[in-house]
Amino acid sequence: MPLRPRSLRPLLRCLLATSLAVQPVLAADLPDLGEVSRQYFSDQEEQILGRTIMRDVYADPRYLDDPEIESYLNQLGYKLVSVSTRNQREFTFFVVDDPSINAFAMPGGNIGVHTGLILTAQNESELASVVGHEIAHVTQDHIARMVAAQNQSYWPTLAALALALLAARSNPNVAGAAIASTQAYTVQNQLNYSRDYEREADRLGYDMLDRAQFDPRGMSTFFARMQRASRFYDSSAPAYLRTHPLTSERISDMEARSQAAPYQQVQDSLDFQLVRARLRAREGNPADAVESARNALRDKRYSNEIAARYGLASALLRARNVKEAEFEAQKLLANPDISPMIQQLAAQIAQAAGNATLALQRFENAGQAHPDYRPLQYGHISALLAASRVEEALTRVNKALARYPDDSRFWQLAASAHARLGHRLLSHRAQAEASALSGNLIAAVEQLGLGIKAGDGSFHELSSAEARKREWQALEKAQRKK
What we know:
The protein is mainly alpha-helical and about 475 residues long. The protein has two domains: about 10-260, no CATH class; about 270-480, Alpha Horseshoe (Serine Threonine Protein Phosphatase 5, Tetratricopeptide repeat), CATH 1.25.40.10. About 70% of the residues lie in helices and about 5% in strands. It is built from 25 helices and three strands. It has helices at about 10-20, 35-40, 45-60, 65-80, 115-120, 125-140, 140-150, 155-170, 170-185, 185-210, 215-230, 240-245, 250-260, 270-280, 285-300, 305-320, 320-335, 340-350, 355-370, 375-385, 390-405, 410-420, 425-435, 440-455, 460-480; strands spanning about 90-95, 105, 110-115. The two termini are about 40 Å apart.
């Protein structure tokens, strides 16, 4: 496999270590954390910090920009959030292209999941158990409670973490030193309090699994397997075990709760299987991925044949073998209950084969069947732009933005459409909105400046752009003062 940069890892571990240092509180008697956490920082301040960190996550090459996988993870995450006792917060679930088994929570409700974890989980309930555990870290305001316990200023510490992430992108050794200097005071308390903290997240995560109708045994089976695996590791233990220390007491507690629960067989969703097949199709070189997928089908080494064929079609498309990919796509489309992920892949295969008419027809049919599935809308608009049907693409993207104004991918598509039509101000404005949503206010202000200088906007468009520019300049200035 190709070597991947490790620039995210130091900060991600560090942020988890930060959130682990809290006062012991049992889940059976949880306090009202609102006033305690907010006396140190406001919701707005935490959101600002979260956007700052996510700006650099999005820019990192190990962030996996895959709308289908990200959409699945957000669907899974919000299914758990919806049954949480503290479900008023907004969350962002994203994927890190890393084979290690790990997941982490960061300020602002941002939760990252490694591809290695998705592929290692033996069923969807195991994956949900880890995601639920991380959600509990966020809903319980653990970072705020760490600050309260230490009586430290929130912003100097966590602003330093954001700077450490910047350093990590260019020099991991420098980043490690920066992290060590900002986090030295938490190490002892992490050792003292992290076990109680992890038990709290275990219990809340377990309750979310049960309410969301996953198999609550998924938590005990996953952690028990990690504990057994740790016996074969030394300093290179799985990342999840290093950031989430396991104890026999925690395992026993989860197993006891599982044994007391009534047995229920929970079937994995098709989308879970498709996501795993999609990730496997990305592994190794294209030829090896195709061979692996073919062998799995031939030897019937799969838990779901549809997902196995989807994986083969994905690998064939990656290898640019569009003729065989189309053959597999037609088999997949013959199934009565078709996932939007399958329809998206079939449309992309037709587009790669140069059949724009078939591709757009497949996107149209899929969009009618699944109007709320945003990856299909991204694909359809992109296909319209590729077919030079720019006005139609702009109409669709404007309709999407009216419904999803905080979607940076739609804003980027709008920027492309406006640029193709010669709308310079509107193109720069759309790109500015995309940059701001990704946390990069400096780039957003620069884009607006270019658009205003273009001089091709109406009075209303220019006034709106000037107002937006002042708003972002004030916000960026406020961030620098924190």
